[in-house]
Write a structure and sequence with these properties.
The chain contains 5 helices and 8 strands; from the N terminus they run E-H-E-E-H-E-H-E-E-E-H-E-H. By secondary structure, it is of the alpha/beta class. It has a 6-stranded parallel beta sheet with strand order 3-2-1-4-5-8. It has a two-stranded antiparallel ribbon with strand order 6-7. Helix 3 runs parallel beside helix 4. The longest helix is centred in the N-terminal third of the chain and has 17 residues. The two termini are 21 Å apart.
């Protein structure tokens, strides 16, 4: 089954000094880089999703800003097996050519990682399942942040665990070490 790696929204605004810093983004990035290294070694497709926020009153991922750029550790992008897909909505499939590109590459399964777990990872993973891409979600290669509801703060760790647990109904949940070294599990 041909796999592709989907790296969602690993952009400067999600890191310290960005406009929407997440919980432990660097640790997440390190796991993403390990996944990417394996996909490069196997010469399998890698898709980088880049969110451009065009909503009125948007506060991050603004067009033509430093925050919108892919994190520098992801660069350079290989031109042979790697593509950047730009999106304007949380779901990476909505109004993009992602599905067409996956079909062009004969991809049958998506390995998903990136940022934010409670938003773009959630919506893209559910859509990938509905499109029958049998997604594998790499839990420790995703990041989120604290959320607030009715004046109460929900810690990022709780948000992360809750969303990953819910997504287990749509994807095979694995950790980077488990995915990279299946014989050691």
């Amino acid at each position: 089954m041909k796999q592709a790696l989907l790296i969602i929204d690993v952009q400067n605004d999600y890191f310290p000094q960005g406009k929407m810093a997440l919980h432990q983004p660097q640790m997440t990035l390190e796991n993403i880089l390990r996944l990417r290294q394996q996909f490069r070694r196997l010469q399998l497709p890698i898709f980088y999703i880049q969110h451009i926020n065009i909503r009125k009153n948007a506060t991050f991922f603004l067009p033509d800003s430093h925050g919108i750029e892919l994190h520098p550790q992801l660069l350079p992008i290989s031109t042979q097996t790697e593509w950047i897909i730009r999106k304007n909505f949380p779901n990476s499939f909505v109004q993009t050519d992602l599905l067409t590109q996956l079909q062009k590459q004969a991809v049958e399964q998506l390995v998903i990682c990136g940022m934010m777990t409670h938003m773009c990872i959630d919506s893209t993973t559910r859509q990938a399942a509905e499109l029958n891409f049998q997604p594998i979600l790499i839990a420790d290669a995703c990041a989120t942040r604290d959320l607030e509801l009715n004046g109460e703060t929900i810690p990022a760790k709780t948000v992360q665990h809750s969303f990953i647990a819910a997504l287990s109904f749509f994807a095979d949940i694995q950790f980077a070490s488990q995915f990279l070294n299946p014989s050691n599990v």
